[in-house]
C-alpha cells in the first residue's frame, strides 16, 4: 500500500506556480477558477483570509517518493456565505443540538459556483486517497464536516463510492449547436420564445443603447473601473457588500487577461456607459467556454439585463465559435432565452453520525425533487423538437 505524506500550507500563494500548474494541467475538467493566479489573487487582495471567514489551508499530498500527487484548494470556513450550495439549515440544526457546525472544511473556488475539477490530482488513485485524507483531517482537526462544491462527475462519483453524501443542483447553460448567426439561433427556438427575444432586443435598441464585447488586452482600466462600479452597485442594491474588491480585478486583469471578456452597454447619442457584464473564459476540448459571472447597471432600461447578460454575449459567442456559455447559479428565466438545464453536484462528509444520517435522508428527498424539477425543465426545452 502506498504511503502518503500530507502537508498543509497557508495559501495557494505558498505553492510555487510551476509546481501547482503541473498538477492543474492534468485535471480533466479544469477551469480558470482553480488557476494559480485566480486563487492567489483572492489571497493577496484580502478577498479571502481570516477577516473574511475564508481561511486558505490548501492540502498537498505526496507519494512515498516525495512526488506531489495532488492538491486540494481547501478553506477553513466560519460561515456559509459565498458558497451557492446552501447548508444554513444544516448549521442551524446542529447548533440547536448544542454542537458546533463551524469551522468546517470547504474545497471550492471562492464565490464561484462553477462546475469543474476541484481536487487536482495526477490520477484516480491519488484522488481517492486525497478524499480519504480530507476525512482524516476533518476528524483530527475536530471540524464538523468537509464539503466539496461543484465538482466534476469523476470526483463526485468517487466521493459517493467512499461514503461522502452527494447533493444535486441545477444550473443553466447555452450550447452552441453550430449556429451560423444570431438569426440562425432564433430559428431553432420555438416561435413563442423567438418572438419574445426579438421584442426584448427591440426595446433596448429603441432606447438608443448598443452593446459591445471587449476581450483580453482590449479591456482597459477604464472598462474595469466601469464594470466594478456596476458590480458594486448590484451588491449594494441587495443590501450586501461585494465579495471581491477592485484590487482583485486589477490583479487578474494583469496576470490572466486572456481569460476575460466584458460586455458593455452604451447610450449611443450620449456616448455614456450604462451597464456591463463579466465573463471568464476557459477551454474544454480545444473549444472556448464562457462563464457568466456578474452584471450591473447604473441606469434602468427595459430588458437591458437580458441584452447585456444573454443576447449580446450569445451573438458574440456564435461569431467567435464559443462552444458554451455557463449561466451560473439560479435563473429559471434563462430557459426562455435559449439556455438549457444542467445538473450540478457537490459531496459532503459529516463527522457526527446521527446528524449525517439525518442529512442523508434529507438529500434523498431533495434529490428526488431536483430530478423532478429537471424533468419539468426539459419538457419546457426552448428549442423546437
CATH homologous group name of the largest domain: Gcn5-related N-acetyltransferase (GNAT)
Low-confidence stretches: none
Q: What number of structural domains do the residues give?
A: 2
Give the biggest sheet: 11 strands, mixed
Q: Strand-and-helix sequence, N→C?
A: EHHEEEEHEEHEHEHHEHHEEEHEEH
Count of beta strands: 15
Rg calc = 22 Å
What report would you give on this structure?
This protein has about 375 residues and is α+β, with helices and mostly antiparallel strands. The protein folds into 2 domains: about 200 residues, Gcn5-related N-acetyltransferase (GNAT) (Aminopeptidase), CATH 3.40.630.30; about 150 residues, Gcn5-related N-acetyltransferase (GNAT) (Aminopeptidase). It has 11 helices and 15 strands. About 40% of the residues are buried.
Topology:
Layout: E1 5-8, H1 17-24, H2 36-44, E2 54-56, E3 59-62, E4 68-72, E5 74-77, H3 88-96, E6 104-107, E7 120-121, H4 124-140, E8 145-148, H5 153-161, E9 165-175, H6 182-187, H7 191-206, E10 209-215, H8 221-237, H9 246-255, E11 260-267, E12 272-284, E13 287-297, H10 304-320, E14 324-326, E15 340-350, H11 353-379
Parallel strand pairs: 6-8, 13-14
Antiparallel strand pairs: 1-3, 2-5, 3-4, 4-7, 5-6, 8-15, 9-14, 9-15, 10-11, 11-12, 12-13
Helix pairs in contact: 2-9, 7-10
Amino acid at each position: 500500500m502506498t504511503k502518503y505524506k500530507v502537508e498543509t500550507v497557508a495559501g495557494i500563494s505558498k505553492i510555487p506556480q510551476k509546481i501547482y500548474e503541473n498538477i492543474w494541467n492534468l485535471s480533466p475538467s479544469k477551469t480558470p477558477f482553480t488557476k494559480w493566479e485566480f486563487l492567489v489573487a483572492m489571497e493577496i487582495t484580502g478577498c479571502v483570509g481570516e477577516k473574511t471567514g475564508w481561511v486558505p489551508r490548501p492540502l498537498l499530498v505526496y507519494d512515498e517518493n516525495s512526488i506531489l500527487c495532488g492538491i486540494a484548494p481547501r478553506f477553513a470556513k466560519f460561515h456559509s456565505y459565498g458558497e451557492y450550495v446552501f447548508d444554513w439549515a444544516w448549521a442551524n440544526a446542529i447548533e440547536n443540538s448544542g454542537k458546533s457546525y463551524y469551522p468546517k472544511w470547504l474545497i471550492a473556488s471562492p464565490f464561484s459556483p462553477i462546475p469543474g475539477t476541484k481536487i487536482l490530482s495526477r490520477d484516480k488513485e491519488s484522488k481517492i486517497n486525497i478524499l480519504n485524507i480530507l476525512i482524516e483531517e476533518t476528524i483530527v482537526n475536530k471540524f464538523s464536516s468537509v464539503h466539496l462544491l461543484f465538482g466534476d462527475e469523476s470526483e463526485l462519483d468517487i466521493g459517493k463510492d467512499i461514503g461522502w453524501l452527494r447533493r444535486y443542483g441545477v444550473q443553466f447553460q447555452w450550447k452552441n449547436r453550430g449556429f451560423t448567426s444570431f438569426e440562425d439561433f432564433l430559428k431553432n427556438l420555438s416561435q413563442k420564445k423567438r418572438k419574445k427575444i426579438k421584442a426584448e432586443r427591440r426595446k433596448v435598441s429603441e432606447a438608443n443603447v448598443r452593446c459591445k464585447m471587449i476581450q483580453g488586452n482590449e479591456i482597459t482600466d477604464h472598462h474595469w473601473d466601469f464594470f466594478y462600479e456596476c458590480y458594486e452597485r448590484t451588491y449594494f442594491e441587495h443590501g450586501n457588500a461585494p465579495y471581491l474588491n477592485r484590487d482583485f480585478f486589477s490583479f487578474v486583469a494583469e496576470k490572466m487577461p486572456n481569460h476575460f471578456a466584458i460586455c458593455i452597454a452604451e447610450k449611443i447619442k450620449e456616448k455614456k456607459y450604462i451597464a456591463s457584464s463579466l465573463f471568464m473564459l476557459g477551454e474544454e476540448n480545444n473549444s472556448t467556454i464562457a462563464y457568466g459571472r456578474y452584471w450591473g447597471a447604473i441606469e434602468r432600461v427595459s430588458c437591458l439585463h437580458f441584452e447585456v447578460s444573454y443576447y449580446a454575449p450569445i451573438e458574440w459567442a456564435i461569431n467567435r465559435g464559443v462552444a458554451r456559455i455557463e449561466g451560473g447559479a439560479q435563473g429559471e428565466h434563462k430557459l426562455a432565452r435559449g439556455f438549457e438545464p444542467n445538473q450540478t453536484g457537490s459531496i459532503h462528509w459529516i463527522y457526527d453520525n446521527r446528524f449525517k444520517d439525518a442529512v442523508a435522508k434529507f438529500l434523498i428527498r431533495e434529490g428526488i425533487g431536483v430530478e423532478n424539477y429537471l424533468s419539468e425543465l426539459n419538457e419546457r426545452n426552448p428549442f423546437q423538437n
